């Protein structure tokens, strides 16, 4: 591996005066308008209570009611972690729940794959660029970024707490739950003083379930032999670009063609059309094919450094033909104004802080490093959009981090802040995987 080096340069100043003009001779990076001290931002998340999103709250409530009525979650046979399909009272799958302690590297992971990985190849176990056991926050964080940017490709995901006999609990937790239940049943005067009866709720990510989708790999193979209509291909290109933007900003280290989804409904005749109409083959009687995408499995994102040891964790969509097409005007108009505004970027960091701080192992210094990587990704993406580059050209750009000056990491966000741009020259041992 190459010797690690670092070139550090100050970013061009974007200090704005009161009248909105920009002074290019100053050396601070952005003018911002509100307090940034992360410790002073609003209190901890109230789990399973979403007053600003009643629709999502209703789905969570449906899952809770189903659990109360003995309708247990179903453990997914796919993947390398505890992933459960939550059902409503009619036994219809409505969401996917991934507990924190059952993540790929969690101590209660019910799948043996990662245990074998750790046993047989401990030197390559885990991902050194990621914060351990924060996959559930990464899932929710990806949804937050998706909504903030208006991409609308991630099924809505939030952090919740749920309990079920189906989840993988330790023997001690199950024994404690049985003991409390027995005491409550036999000595109610004592049992009523317990704060909780039953198994403890698990914290994890709760993602709304999407119907009618298949692995992208399935449809991409079909599209190779069955070309899409021009209008549908154009729409798919726009949706593909949104997945690219999401993955690049959050630096997803686990994006293959088997963990993002495509929903495709081929062209059909309009309702009410007769057989004669169909035989006449008038295109006005035929509806355009419908296509949609869903970016799921975002639990291995938001690294605190760029991959620089064994593996590079490339984006597998970079080998698709769609990645060679320059970014469209549509995605440029959607994102450029937002991503070019350092106030917007800092607001995004604040929102992520408000989410990430709920973890018991949260460390502000590590979080700042995660945001430094994300700012660098946003900087590269903004430049690529301005230059009209393609996704494959985007991933070929030198990786960069944008660090906030330590003197400005305090209780208030100053009128102007200094950010430092760093280019890393250390490459992973394997660049292809």
UniProtKB/TrEMBL annotation:
TM spans (from-to): none
Cellular localisation: Cell membrane; Membrane
Any one GO biological process: endosome organization
Record-level Gene Ontology MF annotations: 1-phosphatidylinositol 4-kinase activity; ATP binding
Membrane protein topology class: Peripheral membrane protein
Coiled-coil spans in chain: none
The entry's keywords: ATP-binding, Cell membrane, Kinase, Membrane, Nucleotide-binding, Transferase
Residues of the PI3K/PI4K catalytic domain: 70-404
Protein name (Swiss-Prot/TrEMBL): Phosphatidylinositol 4-kinase type 2
Organism: Biomphalaria glabrata (Bloodfluke planorb)
């Amino acid at each position: 591996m190459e010797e690690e080096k670092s070139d550090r340069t100050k970013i061009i100043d974007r200090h704005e005066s009161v009248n909105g003009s920009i002074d290019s001779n100053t050396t601070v990076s952005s003018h911002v308008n509100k307090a940034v001290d992360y410790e002073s931002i609003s209190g901890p998340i109230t789990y399973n209570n979403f007053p600003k999103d009643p629709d999502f709250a209703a789905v969570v409530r449906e899952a809770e009611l189903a659990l109360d009525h003995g309708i247990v979650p179903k453990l997914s046979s796919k993947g390398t972690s505890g992933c459960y399909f939550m059902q409503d009272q009619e036994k219809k799958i409505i969401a996917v729940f991934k507990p924190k302690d059952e993540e790929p590297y969690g101590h209660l992971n019910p799948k043996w794959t990662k245990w074998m990985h750790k046993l047989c190849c401990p030197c390559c176990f885990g991902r050194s660029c990621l914060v351990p056991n924060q996959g559930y926050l990464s899932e929710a964080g990806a949804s937050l970024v998706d909504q903030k940017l208006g991409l609308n490709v991630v099924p809505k995901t939030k952090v919740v707490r749920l309990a079920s006999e189906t989840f993988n609990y330790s023997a001690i937790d199950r024994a404690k739950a049985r003991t409390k239940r027995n005491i409550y049943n036999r000595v109610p005067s004592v049992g009523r003083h317990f704060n909780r009866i039953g198994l403890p709720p698990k914290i994890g990510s709760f993602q709304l379930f999407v119907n009618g989708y298949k692995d992208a790999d399935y449809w991409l193979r079909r599209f190779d032999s069955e070309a899409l209509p021009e209008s549908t291909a154009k729409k798919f290109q726009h949706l593909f670009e949104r997945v690219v933007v999401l993955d690049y900003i959050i630096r997803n280290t686990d994006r293959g063609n088997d963990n993002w989804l495509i929903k495709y409904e081929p062209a059909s005749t309009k309702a009410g059309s007769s057989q004669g109409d169909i035989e006449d083959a008038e295109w006005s009687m035929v509806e355009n094919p419908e296509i949609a995408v869903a970016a799921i499995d975002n639990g291995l994102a938001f690294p605190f450094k760029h991959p620089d040891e064994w593996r590079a964790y490339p984006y597998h969509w970079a080998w698709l033909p769609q990645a060679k097409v320059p970014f469209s005007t549509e995605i440029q108009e959607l994102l450029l104004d937002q991503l070019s505004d350092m106030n917007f970027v800092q607001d995004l960091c604040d929102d992520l802080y408000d989410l990430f701080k709920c973890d018991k192992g949260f460390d502000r210094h590590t979080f700042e490093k995660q945001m430094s990587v994300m700012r660098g990704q946003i900087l590269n993406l903004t430049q690529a959009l301005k230059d009209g580059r393609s996704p494959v050209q985007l991933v070929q750009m030198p990786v960069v981090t944008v660090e906030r000056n330590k003197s400005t990491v305090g209780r208030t966000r100053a009128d102007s802040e200094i950010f430092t741009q760093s280019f890393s020259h250390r490459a992973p041992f394997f660049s292809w995987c």
